[in-house]
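Researcher: Hi, I'm a grad student and pretty new to this. My advisor asked me to get structures for two proteins we've been looking at. I'm not sure of the right format, so I'll just paste the first sequence and hope you can take it from there.
Model: That works fine. Here's the first sequence with its structure tokens right after it:
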Amino acid sequence: MKEFKKSRVLQVLIINWCGIGLILIIFRVYALIGIGLMHYTSVASMALTFARGLANDLVAALCLALLFSPLLLLLRVVIPKKPLVWLLPSYLFVAILSFGLERYFIGEMTPLGADFWTYSGEDVRTTIAASVHFDAILGLGLFVLALSLCCSALLSQRALENFGKRYYSFSLSALGLSVLVSFFVPDFASLQNQYLAENRVSYFALHSFAGVNAANTPSTVVIEAYPFERPFEETDILGPYFKEFDVPPNLIFIHVEGLGGEFTGKEAKMKGFTPFLDSLSEASLFWPNCLSTTGRTFGVVPALYGSLPPGNQGFMDLGPDYPSHFTLISWLKDNGYSTSYYYGGNINFDKTDIFLDYQGIDNLIYEGRFPDSYKKMEANNEGFSWGYPDGALFDFYEKNISTVSSPRMDMLMTLTTHEPFRVPDTDIYSRKFDRVVAGFDKKELFLAHRNIFETFLYFDDGLRTLFNKLSKKDDWENTIVVVTGDHRVIPLPQESPLDRFHVPLLIFSPALLRGQTFKAMASHTQVAPSFVSFFKSKHQFPVENKLPFVSGSLPQQTDFEARLSLPLMRNKGELDIFIDNNILLANDRLFEVGEGLAIEPLNDAGKKASLKAKLNHFKQKQEVALQENRLWEYKSGQSNQQFTFSDTALQWIKDVGVKQMGSDSQFYFARELAHNKEYERARWAAGYLLNNSPNYSDARILIGRTFVWEGKYSQATPILQEAQRRSPNYEDVYQALADVYFWSEQTDSSRLWVDEGLERFPKSVQLQQKRKRLEE
């Protein structure tokens, strides 16, 4: 092959464009096979979506080819006689990236964007471990990865050997056709079709850039001192629906993973998969048109209990140094409530435990605190399990509440209706699914996602069992239960930008005078203000004159109305949707929202500009409020066991890169320091870890043991006792406590911890050896 001249570099750029375009198109076909044809409403819809998709792929390929042109020119200088080698790095990069993004899209039915960069390395690994398992689609994807590389390499080799005018003609024609398709094919009314047409590589790049840019947007207007503070609302909208409570009622909040508005209520589109919840909605205060503030779980706790702004990556992500704020959790605790949070999975995911610690939570029950008598959800092929199924969660909760003093505020977060969507009793729920689906004329969507719908049937049965057990308790008549979804389940197709946020909201109590359905648009951010007014009115709980809420109380209109003014965050780093009364700004398009949250495209440049201005103003307000601690003028926070550091320690933490490590790497680093007898620095590293992962038991035990090794037993004891409180089902805690009391010559206390450990772990060789040591 002849050495290329400078005049022929353009030819290589064109070939690079064609090769990258071929890779993107092959992966588009892979995605089409992976998601199935049932997601297209018609042949015409499929044709238009695919045509727009091909155009987007070719434009994205051109941008990528230009992006790689400096590398291509560099390789031309380094290895001038091997032009095919110049192209391979770009092909390999695009193919691997496309494989990952298309695999994510097939599983989630939404493209991956800026949220990828906002999760910690540990959270990303957890998510990948949960969702990636080898199946036919993954196997096909690996084949497509190899096929796309081979095809692009063969095409390029042939073009390099025989480049003619036809390549110029083809390139110009393809580019022109792409422009024509983009210009003449109208925007899709369906959000799902819009997602299907997106080039996933360009979507990922553009949204990543937009997310970074949004996080660094300075305030350009004058913002009041505390921009989210509002006068306390005296009007109690909940109280008139209840009988009088002699004492403050127990509160039970149940956040259901993925429970969308389409599942629940007599007018729900997919009614039948939550039959108990359907019946409960008719006896409850029911808002069928409620909106979550985020499209993933990270937003439900701050919105539901604090009516808090989402920040750039979710309010909980600001921890452990949160701006002062108000939540129903800490307020009810201050007024005599015992507060508990139950979750069968990793409580550090999204920094949930850090946020709840800040509220002074009394009981934090998570994966590590479930007894061995409960069985985790079935693991995937890689051995990963998210945690305990809903049935175990509800059963453990019901058995545990008798040990907690009243009044109680209990919060439960379910898990089974999350990927990988597996139920403990597959045969039972497969038959139930078949019976429900038999009542639908169009069954394709249900059959394609039967595992998802089976998990909702399982959840609903568990909820029914829980209610039956609770109804037999003495304090049932003095209990209020709130049920809502954290967001709508993601893998199901989304026709509207609001689908991801549309969730039901139910407030039930045996003390309700009557059920009532409110069709007005509601939001999670209106729940806390409503309960604050309720408790102030009915039980005279003291409250400040101003509260930092982004919304007021829940609406009471029984016909559809929309009086919200609120931003919505689809993913972390993507605060780009705004709802203002019945007008929605989403994906840079304007819609009118009607009955049942149905939307219609709206062409009004003035209103669009107005909503953009309101969204930007909200972002500027929250930037000031969150970064400058101007959310609330009153001091808040009851952080438990937060470690503080001297200037010397902080400088060392920065210099050695502890902040950049994942939690596991931080622990291994601290352990290595301890083994080298650098005990103080080991405590610095482990303490920094615990400020961000307060339930990382091994790190807390390591700190305790370093004090023991230095003979500082009185300092070790409270650290290890806190580790046992947080992780009572972890054997190492009992070993460490037995040791500290033994070496400090408190043998009776050592024996108590050995006995308690053996009661939980009767086969433990280490604990048996420690008992023998005490008997010698």
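Researcher: Oh nice, that was easy. Here's the second one.
Model: And its structure:
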Amino acid sequence: MKYRIPEKYSGFHSFLTCQSSVITGINKGFLRQTGYSESEIINRHIDDVLTGLLRIQHHKVQKVKAKGMAECFLFTKALQPRKVCIRLVNEGDSDRSVYYFIDKSGSCLNDYLLTLKQLNDTACALYAVPELILLKASPKYLGYLPEPANKAEYSIGKSVGNIFPDFKGSAQELVWNRAIGSGKIKHVKNRRKFSENQVTYWESCVIPVFKNRKVRYIYEVITDVTDRDKNNQPMTGQAQLTKVKQLKLDILESIRVGFVILDQDWRFAYVNPQAAHYLGLKPDKLVGRLIWDCLEWLDKTEVGGYLRQAQMECRPISFEFHYPDTDQYFNCSIYPATSGMAIYWVETTKHKHTEREAIRNKKKADILYEMAGKLHASNMPLRIIKKLCLKITDFLGCQLFINYIVDEKRKKLRMNACWGLDDQMRKELEWIDYGHTLCGCAARDRTRVVVENIQHSTDTETEWYRTAGIRAFASHPLVEKDRVVGTLAFGSRTKDTFSRDDLALMKAVADLTATAINRVRTERRMKEQHQLMLEAERERIAALKRYIKMKDEFLSIISHEFKTPLAVIFSAIQTMEHTCGDELSEKAKSFISKIRQNSLRQLRLVNNLLDITRLNSGWLIPNWSNVDIVRLTRAITQSVEVYARQKNIALTFQSRLKQRVIQMDQEKYERILLNLLSNAIKFTPEGKSVTVRVYMTKKFGSRMVGIEVKDEGMGIPREKMDAIFERFFQVDSSFTRQAEGIGIGLCLAQKFTESLGGRMTAKSKVGQGSSFSVFFPDTKKECSDAGPENVQQDYKLLLTASVEFSDMVS
């Protein structure tokens, strides 16, 4: 997978990717930077590449791994030095890591290397301070080094201590340290013994090189003095001084740094070629003349102040100088002496422009980030556009901005915000048509309109702008999802053109504004649609409630109407049994029994329908009383034993509690338990058993009385357990053929339980039976009579049971 440099590391143009310290990927920037091929780097250990191929010092590599970043020198395949900054990023908990590289060499180092190249015929070398790493050396210089360091591949990138084994503690080290500490040129004499008969002597000239007022590099120039020492003919002081002066002159003439020497009267005593180039005059036109006579453009107050300060305080002075005619920047340093002063300067225009551009880009990014955040967070972006655009206007150096918003109803552009217009102009331009003015053209054509050099234009379309003193104007359409929502325009009264960067910033601001406006409009439309949907849903629910109410009222009326003929039927049956029961034949008695059973079925259905409609209407209010739940449950169980014996089913009552008085609606509890017993007995095969158990338990966060009805019937499939309490639900059609019913008994029993403050649960396994449990709070009703009410009369309980068990086939 191709690795892309993240945004926050975009300044690093080359990188290596590693997995478990083995290099797995590189980019072309790294290959160009180092000169190596991909095959020479891939699948090698990172330490081998950094310290081996690139010759980075070991302690720098360790610093990168420990602190995540370090500056150091690396060397290309051609042994060219590059000053780089290395950044290590470890990706999460994985073994993957990325090494980013950014070149920090700059023009100064390149100038020093170029100077060394120009002195190729001289034995000279360039070292980096403070590590004293050999960056570059001429072939003649390498010839003075001990083996194997006399070959570039064994010395470039090495410290001077590794090149000269006896450097530590030697006179050479002392001279080098003095040169670095004082910033002055120093000399030292060295000797090298090749064999018993061959000894080479040379003199080393150590020249410190400054950067930002600190010694950053060392030039070492070697002069062979073997013949002079062998002949015991030491060079005279004057000859040696002449030679050193000539060497210094050669260096000063070749370096790409402006260097001049002024005498005590501030006349030019020496001007090197680079300085003459900067000053625009030949050296012979400058030497001997006062600095002010030949450089009239110099600021006497500023530059003269620095010269006087250095001369009076006898210390080096550094300052930055700007030449406005060519927009050039220089870092200048003044070194005073008793007989005059030396001045050198390095051009930093490119660096200054880069720094200025970086500051501008950061400020631009901060403004865009702030604008994006506030527009995204605001529910009313149109109200904050003016405040945000004022910052953009100030950053761009503009004196005008206008923001229009499309009015969909009037099909025109309405001014939302502006700055830089007087009241009359604002009133005239408050509403514009598509195609009218530059803003209207941008909205109509959906493209940016830029007009520059307006004051020199004769176009009638720009007449208003010329009158307003506008010199450059740019209008951007606010487009989001192929819809124009407005325009955003900026104008300048001080410059005739906009840069590409200015126009790009305007477009970015326009895009952010369009996105924010469209987001708010979309949210508003969605909210309106949501409100319409909610209103429609409320109307639908209200209609449904009316329909349900009508249905419940209809069921209630029908149920009451059914009760009247049922009462007549029951009365007729009772009259026949009492008046002429002995005279009826067995066949007639059988018919009367069937009539009674089906009438009870009908009565049960009518009662259930009435109770459901009352529950839905909230009319079924519990009739609370304190009841001994153990005694009542036992009585209900005993009342249905006759139906269990008809199917040869063993009906058992179990309880460790002798008595437990709780508040209860006795009639509703009877209906609940009789329904559960009816289902248990109906769906349990012959020869099996049904058990009723009363117990105390802690459930649903409180102390409860539990009543469990457990059978050994066919069981209920798991996928249908969630639906057994739904109205009119039947587990299987085969059940209805074995036991009649319409599937509202369990639904009604559960609603009765909940109306009494209880809970109903069910467990079942196919082929093993089912268990239904009801739980009621262990609480009593507060009343003057503390004793429990008596269980209702046996006849009434038996009648209730006969109604609930009317579905059982006789």
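Researcher: Is there anything I should tell my advisor about the second?
Model: You could mention this: The two ends are 80 Å apart (CA to CA).
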